[in-house]
Amino acid sequence: MELIDRYLHAIRRNLPEAKAEDIVAELRDELMSRVEDREEGMGRALDKAETGALLRDFGHPLVVAARFRTHQYLIGPGLFPFYLSVMRIVGMIVVAIVLAISIGKAVMSGEGDMLRIWVDSMSGIFEAVLVNAAIVTIVFAVLERANFKPGDTLEWKPDELPDVLDKQPGPWASAAEVALSIAFILWWTGVIAVPWVRGDADFHLQPSPIFTELFVPILILASVRLVHNLIQWLRPRWKTVMGLTNAVTALGGLAILMLIYQSGQLVTVVSTGMAAEQTLKLQESLDLSFRIAVIVIAVVWSFQALGAVWKLVRRRNG
């Protein structure tokens, strides 16, 4: 019986103190019952080797003790879906930010630096994702130990589920839209610095003054679009609110595009060594390209705005 006592002592060391005595007593009763059954079948007492075999069949002390612990996992099944969702959003935001910074560096550099920038970008993405994943994991592990219960798991309503025929983007597509919206807002507000184009030492591009005038409207529009993407992802049954945000962003985008088009320029070519004639030709070429791009985008957004307004009218009449 000494071997059984040692076995139970090893289990007890890994049990919660408040419940250790009761659990050990329960395990002792079960083990003694198994010993008696085997001894009855063999017609004699078990020797040390046979008792050891019985204990091996019962399980390793750490494994047996783990069955009685409150937490057997780092992040439990109740929090794990939310953990994945947050990890997805954080990962998308980190990748978008690192790529934005890398693109800015690539634009400023010469062709000979492209490979180095690409390698640095991939390394930077890996390190940033790894660090942020560790932070998110630690936060959710702490929440798990604190018995945090996500409200949505307890208060969700079946009637808020999206309709079968609704066109819902996949979870990765939704996370990507949210991440890109956040990345744009961070860039627009200057949190992420992405430099403007520099052409060696001959010229560089500066944003048109119109963007300074439209800073606040564009920020508001981007924020509303972020709200729209979040609602589309998390509350797809809020169709009226989603329709309003979609219509506001489409109509607001058209208004901003009209003001940008009327300004005549999106960027200004600043010569730092380029001949005046070449600077003028480059400016005219960029202006024409941007105007064509604005017209194409305006046509697309016009159809989106009409579609959003039409859905709102139909929903209201319905």
Care to describe what's here?
This protein is mainly alpha-helical and 318 residues long. It folds into 3 domains: 2-66, no CATH class; 74-191, no CATH class; 196-318, no CATH class. It contains 12 helices and 3 strands. It has helices at residues 2-12, 20-42, 48-58, 61-66, 80-108, 114-145, 151-155, 171-188, 209-213, 215-234, 239-263, 276-317, and strands at residues 198-199, 203-207, 267-271. A 3-stranded antiparallel beta sheet has the order 1-2-3. The model is unreliable at 156-161 (pLDDT under 50).
Give Rg in angstroms: 32 Å
Helix vs. strand class: mainly alpha
Question: What is the CA-CA span between the terminal residues?
Answer: 79 Å
> Which stretches of 5+ consecutive residues score pLDDT under 50?
156-161
Mean of residue pLDDT values:
75
Question: What is the helical fraction, as a range of percent?
Answer: over 70%
Number of domains: 3
Q: What count of helical segments does DSSP give? A: 12
Give the number of DSSP strands.
3
Main sheet strand line-up: 1-2-3
What is the strand content? Answer: under 5%
**Tertiary shape:** elongated
Topology as a string of helices (H) and strands (E) = HHHHHHHHEEHHHEH
Instruction: Please summarize the sheet with the most strands.
Output: 3 strands, antiparallel
